[in-house]
Each structure stands twice: as structure tokens, then as C-alpha cells.
Amino acid sequence: MAGTCSSVDSGAHIERLRAQLGGPRDGALLRFSLGNALLAAGDAAAAAAELRAAVGFDPVYSAAWKLLGRALADAGDTAGAQAAWMQGVNVAEARGDVQAAKEMRVFLRRLQRAGGAT
Question: For residues 59 and 90, is the Cβ–Cβ distance under 8 A?
Fold first, then answer.
């Protein structure tokens, strides 16, 4: 029963975020939030689309690159995940975001060990 309520809350949250698209609050943070909510709800492909929009609004948003890589990996696009994390590492290093760069390098190594990337 708690799972049902959570699912309903998640759906309502996603719809509230979607209602703001194209409005004055549309931007990297809104798209990141929507992508995060979609990923949590199990829709990795839709999450990836929103996270791509987030980095389109703000190409130096390290957290969005990191989550985009995860969404792509969850959607089965290992090459896309690798590319997103590699770009994310570059962005994070340029911004001095050491922790995000470190995390994305770990994700890349795991992907490579799993045979999903070269």
C-alpha cells in the first residue's frame, strides 16, 4: 500500500514538473529534477531525454552529466552512457568538481569491466 501511494506521489510530482516545461522556470534545474524523478520512477529513456535537455541549457552542469550517464546506462545505451560520463568528467574537472569527476570515472570503469564500453 505504501508503494502505491509513493507511485501516485511520484506520478503527481512528475506531472507538476512537466507542467512547468516551456514556462519561465524551464531550464537546467527543472529538466534535471524531471529527469531525476523519471529515473526514480523507472523511465530511463524519458529521463535521458530530459537530462539531455538539462545539459543543453547548462553544458557545465556536472550533476546532470552524471545522471544522464546513469539514465543512458539504465536504458541500455552503454555507448551513450560512456560518452556522457566522459563529457561529465571533462566538465567536472574544468569546474574543479573533484568528487563528481571521481564518481563518473568509477562509473566508466564499472561499465568497461562489464564489457559495455571500450
Answer: no
| Nearest 10 degrees: Cα torsion 18, 88, 63, 46 | 30
Secondary structure (DSSP) of 68-98: HHHHHHHTT-HHHHHHHHHHHHHHHHHHT-H
* 11-17 own/partner pairs: CB under 8 Å, 24+ apart: 11/41, 13/37, 14/38, 14/41
Q: Are 62 and 87 in contact (CB under 8 A)?
A: no
Terminal Cα-to-Cα distance of the chain (whole angstroms): 43
pLDDT digits (tens, 9 = 90+) for 26-85: 999 999 999 999 999 999 999 999 999 999 999 999 999 999 999 999 999 999 999 999
pLDDT one-digit tens code per residue, 32-42: 999 999 999 99
- Label residue 71 exposed, middle or buried (CB < 10 Å: 0-12, 13-18, 19+): buried
Distance CA 99, CA 77 (A): 24
User: How long a stretch of residues is the chain?
Assistant: 118
pTM: 0.87
